[in-house]
């Protein structure tokens, strides 16, 4: 009857909310992973720049 249908709707709404929460959590952790990857790329760029600087210094020393 009426009550059963209402309970069914409530349960469906709860399941949908649960799925959305799961998707949101997955998106959140993916965003976190992407952020960490970007930070690592920045760090690698800095290391590369430092290595290039060192190389230039070495070449300057060798040129003398």
TrEMBL record:
Keywords: Coiled coil
Residues forming coiled coils: 3-61
Name of this protein: Uncharacterized protein
Source organism of the structure: Haematococcus lacustris
């Amino acid at each position: 009857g009426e009550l059963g249908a209402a309970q069914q709707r409530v349960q469906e709404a709860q399941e949908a909310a649960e799925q959305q929460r799961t998707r949101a959590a997955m998106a959140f952790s993916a965003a976190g992973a992407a952020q960490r990857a970007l930070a690592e790329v920045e760090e690698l760029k800095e290391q590369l720049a430092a290595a290039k600087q060192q190389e230039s210094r070495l070449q300057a020393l060798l040129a003398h």
